[in-house]
Specification:
With about 80 residues, the chain is mainly β. Helix content is about 10%, strand content about 25%. Strands 2-1-5-3-4 form a five-stranded mixed beta sheet, with no helix packed on it. The termini are far apart.
Length: about 80
Amino acid sequence: MEITIELFATLTKYLPKGTRGKSATLTVQDGATVAQVMEGLGLPGDMPFTTLVNGRHSEADQVLQPGDRLTAFPPLAGGRG
């Protein structure tokens, strides 16, 4: 099945080779989870990041569906102290 992966900031280096911009279409196995996709991209297991599926917070064990958009970004910092 095909999904779209979108990675931001320091995570963009984990996009498939040849990707231009911050997103790519991936073919993944039916029943793939968020964690399996992120692991398949080569993200280290101890690297912190937040994921969304179709714009909603997701857990690592969420099963993806055809056409889903998986978005990941590193922890955000800043603001007023």
